[in-house]
Design brief:
Blueprint lengths: L2 H5 L3 H11 L9 H10 L7 E5 L5 H9 L4 E6 L2 H13 L5 E5 L12 E7 L8 H11 E14 L6 H11 L7 E2 H11 L2 E9 L7 H14 L3 H6 L2 E8 L4
Helix pairs in contact: 3-4, 7-9
This protein binds S-adenosylmethionine.
S-adenosylmethionine binds next to helix 2 and strand 2.
Amino acid sequence: MPSRLRQNPDPKSAVIAFYSQWHGERTYVNPPTVVRALKQRDIPPDARMLDIGFGNGEIAVTVAEAFPQGWVEGIDLTEKNVKLAWDRARGREVSNVSFSVADAEILELPAAHYDAVLAMQVMQFIADPDALIRRVFRALRPGGAFLFATPFLPPDPTLHPFFLDAYARVVPNSFQYRTEDAWYGSLFDAGFERIYTAKAHWDPDGQPEAWQQAYRQALAEHNLDYETARRHTWGGLISARKPRT
Ligand SMILES: C[S@@+](CC[C@H](N)C(=O)[O-])C[C@H]1O[C@@H](n2cnc3c(N)ncnc32)[C@H](O)[C@@H]1O
């Protein structure tokens, strides 16, 4: 269990506190990449979509613009993000989107309702990701897609203690990190098929200052050299399909 979780007995309140102070300065995933992934999945033009943990709303608004006949429903833990996202949608004159406060871990999701569910850089905050994956599967219509982006642990388990610590430091109050294979296992277990990943390697030196500092502190504590860690610092956008029948 990563150290941050041990230190923090109430991670959900900590996430809410952190994102209530946040100014929404950036998206954590490139919005056009999300749109491209949805188009690759042949999501219908009038799709119903759910964006879990929409953050500043930029991804949901960009997706809504790309699917003008569709509808994007955004949920997030904080009022602050809801306000940021509504302001963004109004400023861009996008009306096929809605934003509300809800916790994806307890919100009841309608069965066979959505064509796509997004969770961009959110799974690392979810206490029971397998339960959420099963609920998302149930909420998707046949042929619907679940797209989520998250940092991956590298395959070499000896590097896991470093990455669990480093990621928990750079993404405050996050604790749920897995290998790409482990995510695929959970998705297959839930019934998903045709799973693929758009992988991205992150150069730690290209990250924001606070990110770099946290990463280097973790390197020092784990006595790991920068080059070894750098080569294993990557994540991706996983896309999985619910079978059509
Ligand atoms: C790292 S940010 C990502 C924001 C956005 N998806 C992006 O990629 O730019 C994580 C977001 O997930 C939200 N979040 C975390 N746990 C959540 C939960 N259980 N239900 C809904 N939203 C959650 C946080 O409030 C935060 O806005």
